Fold this protein.
Amino acid sequence: MSTVIKGARPYGEGDPVDVLIEDGVITAIGAVQVPEGAEVIEAAGQVLLPGFVDLHTHLREPGREDTETIDSGSAAAALGGYTAVFAMANTDPVADNAVIVDHVWRRGQEVGLVDVHPVGAVTVGLKGEKLAELGTMAASQARVKVFSDDGLCVADPLLMRRALEYSTALDVVIAQHAEEPRLTVGAQAHEGERAARLGYTGWPAAAEESIVARDCLLALHANARLHVCHVSTSGTADVLRWAKDRGTKVSAEVTPHHLLLTDERLATYDPVNKVNPPLRTESDAERLRTALAEGVIDCVATDHAPHAVQDKDTEWSAARPGMLGLQTALSIVAETMVRTGLLDWRGVARVMSERPAEIGNLADQGRPIAAGEPANLTLVDPDAEWTVRGAELASIAANTPYEGMRLPGVVTATLLRGRVTARDGKIC
Ligand SMILES: NC(=O)N[C@@H](CC(=O)O)C(=O)O
Ligand SMILES: [Zn+2]
Ligand SMILES: [Zn+2]
């Protein structure tokens, strides 16, 4: 089985080249003779990148298959240019044991569009009371590499410390949803002038920053790896810079929506804009963009969070937090980071593929585009634009905050180990 991508520009650099892929591996780059019977993808100068890796996806299976399944979520991921995603543990039942994580892993392999790596829960039932069996999950068929109670914060400092200590022996990473729960009781939106005017209880920046600071110190003293989920404030960027300068093994992600959207959206009253952590101010978003460009924030993760109409289309306070992200991530990064000159395409490869693959400890993802490397690839038309329609996205739920927006950057093909999983907006 061979495929030739004709006339692509790896990392958007240099003259167009042909890429020959045989048996899932890149075997030649340059002017390639098309083998008999090979599948040909005419790239016409488009940008070729390593397949994207999402450290933070909610696929809702098991438990809420009315909003997303491993099948539908894998399709959304492939169409968005992803070749691997990490599926969060806040399912029903919770992914806090080997049976559930193995189901998620196996189902992902059956669907075959993207590698679905289950995230294991840190605490039993996400209850924050006692540690889940991290070792059993790490040794299971799913080989769990990332643990998180995402949706909830591991707030107890003693439990968090233990989790970090165990993680070093298992060579896994603890990903924290940084939210001091005592500071966010009843919180509905970013604590600031806009929330105050609408009478919403505020979600203060310090609720995030205080946990990030605490966890960085715990990780430093335990010599453990910590990953910070969905950074949303400029103060968190300050803490991360400080911690990294001191040698803390901390990594962090930012979501596309926190790069682009702000609490100005509160004025719409539309709960499609409700998310945790909340949309912050313009100056926060600006700082998150520069922190990502500088590497203070390591990568982009979608926090793709599908929700049913009845859980979203209600009054603000009753709506669930979360928004879709897999199929729009590349375009939001193109809009906020590439068009602004903050990142070139090599930088996009770093924040959407290489760094997330390293943090998630995936040996076969985020690899260089070179002969001998696995053919996990994404082809992007940087000049094309498209209009977002929630109903047309592959997810079962349709809660996109970008409805009707015209965005730059179109994923034209995704290849997983040489197999074309998505092409021109269709699943293959
Ligand atoms: N981001 C959200 O607003 N919601 C997530 C949970 C989470 O990531 O905290 C969800 O599971 O819906
Ligand atoms: Zn979260
Ligand atoms: Zn999440």
Observations:
- The radius of gyration is 21 Å.
- The first helix runs from residue 70 to 79.
